[in-house]
């Protein structure tokens, strides 16, 4: 039951993170006319900060408060999110430049791949439970 609750919580905050990512992307590209690659980067940074806080506190309920342990969690989290950023940007480039898919549709597709990757990285590496 705990895994089901965790997965639902992750999905809920993953959707919010994705909304932040996509809304930020849309504002930057559609309103501010920013290049889609740069907009992907800025929206990714904002989404990562939001995701770390919500994943740590509400999804995986990491109770590590020691500054060194929190910095380690954030560093490992950011490393895996950086990997997912490359998955995101590569998906965007392939979809937009080679498959000529609309950039907004490509952004949604890329985010689906990213959500799945990030869940497994967070659950099994970043916020894994310490054995007593």
TrEMBL record:
InterPro entries: GtrA_CellWall_Glycosyl (IPR051401), GtrA_DPMS_TM (IPR007267). Signal peptide: none annotated. GO terms for biological process: polysaccharide biosynthetic process. GO terms for cellular component: plasma membrane. Belongs to the GtrA family. PANTHER family: CELL WALL TEICHOIC ACID GLYCOSYLATION PROTEIN GTCA (PTHR38459:SF5), PROPHAGE BACTOPRENOL-LINKED GLUCOSE TRANSLOCASE HOMOLOG (PTHR38459). This is GtrA family protein.
